[in-house]
């Protein structure tokens, strides 16, 4: 019988590595979080927030962002070094950090940050189930459903985009300041057919992802390996190392569900 706790540990530890990378990147760009930086606090100015004004002022302050950075670095270390209870506590701290960043300044967050919040939120919610095995099983199944939906929705969104269908989206992404890669952008411009091939391969891979749940388990595992390679390439070309670790952290949940299907069929 497949032990869900093993897959949960893999998920949380990979996610923790991604968060630790995020913490190091944030600390290295600490100047951006100052009062004159692009990531300066904006919580005080948000009059629609449910948080009391003193709390929002603290989030905007130097002490507030320092505390956020410290917890952001400490939580993944707690996950990597601790057991189940430590992981649950770290997930709660990580979720608090994620929400604090969003409240302080809604800009500068990307898909890996959002997925990090989903992972921690699911872990915290399922931890309320007293039975550890049932808790872990539900966590993995919920995360797997989120993974499948994320790939499929992303692929369908690209499919209806004329920029993606034409292959121009790759060029536009590679020319941005935030996620750009000048060398790769020049290569795509010089070889538009390759740009279209990459675009359509991305669309096809994401739209076809649900097939892994009905395919032969060996083929399904190969498909997940290709997905990991895709995230690795994206991490390299777009300068997003945490992207690989955070999205890769969801793959153990797919391996778990596929393994359960195989066991039930035998």
Summarize the structure in words.
- With 266 residues, the protein is mainly α.
- Helix content is 75%, strand content 0%.
- The chain is built from 13 helices and no strands.
- The protein has helices at 4-28, 53-60, 62-81, 84-104, 111-126, 132-159, 162-166, 168-174, 182-190, 192-207, 217-237, 241-248, 251-265.
- Helix 1 packs antiparallel against helix 3, helix 1 (4-28) packs across helix 5 (111-126) and helix 2 (53-60) crosses helix 3 (62-81).
- The longest helix is centred in the middle third of the chain and has 28 residues, at 132-159.
- The radius of gyration is 20 Å and the shape is flat.
- The model has no long low-confidence stretch (mean pLDDT 88).
What is the first-to-last residue Cα distance?
12 Å
Mean pLDDT: 88
Number of helices, where a helix is a run of at least 4 consecutive DSSP H or I residues: 13
Estimate the helix proportion, in percent: over 70%
Class of secondary structure makeup: mainly alpha
**C-alpha Rg, in Å?**
20 Å
The largest pleated sheet is described as: none
Q: What portion of the residues fall into strands of 2 or more residues?
A: under 5%
The parts where pLDDT drops under 50 for at least 5 residues are: none
How many β strands by DSSP? 0
List SSEs in N-to-C order.
Answer: HHHHHHHHHHHHH
Q: What general outline do the C-alpha atoms trace?
A: flat
């Amino acid at each position: 019988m497949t032990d869900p706790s093993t897959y949960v540990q893999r998920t949380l530890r990979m996610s923790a590595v991604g968060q630790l990378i995020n913490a190091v990147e944030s600390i290295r760009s600490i100047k951006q979080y100052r009062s004159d930086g692009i990531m300066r606090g904006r919580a005080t100015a948000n009059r629609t927030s449910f948080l009391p004004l003193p709390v929002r002022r603290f989030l905007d302050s130097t002490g507030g962002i320092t505390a956020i950075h410290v917890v952001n670095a400490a939580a993944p270390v707690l996950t990597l070094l601790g057991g189940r209870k430590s992981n649950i506590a770290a997930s709660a701290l990580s979720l608090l950090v994620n929400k604090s960043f969003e409240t302080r300044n809604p800009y500068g967050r990307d898909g890996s940050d959002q997925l990090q919040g989903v992972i921690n939120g699911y872990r915290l919610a399922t931890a309320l189930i007293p039975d550890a095995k049932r808790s872990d099983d539900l966590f993995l199944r919920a995360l797997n459903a989120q993974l499948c939906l994320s790939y499929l929705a992303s692929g369908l969104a690209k499919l209806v985009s004329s920029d993606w269908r034409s292959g121009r989206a790759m060029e536009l992404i590679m020319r941005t300041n935030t996620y750009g890669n000048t060398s790769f952008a020049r290569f795509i411009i010089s070889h538009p057919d390759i740009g279209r091939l990459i675009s359509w391969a991305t669309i096809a891979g994401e739209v076809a992802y649900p097939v892994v749940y009905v395919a032969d388990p060996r083929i399904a595992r190969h498909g997940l390996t290709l997905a990991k390679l895709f995230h690795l390439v994206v991490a390299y070309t777009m300068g997003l190392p945490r992207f690989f670790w955070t999205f890769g952290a969801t793959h153990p949940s797919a391996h778990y569900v596929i393994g359960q299907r195989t066991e039930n069929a035998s």
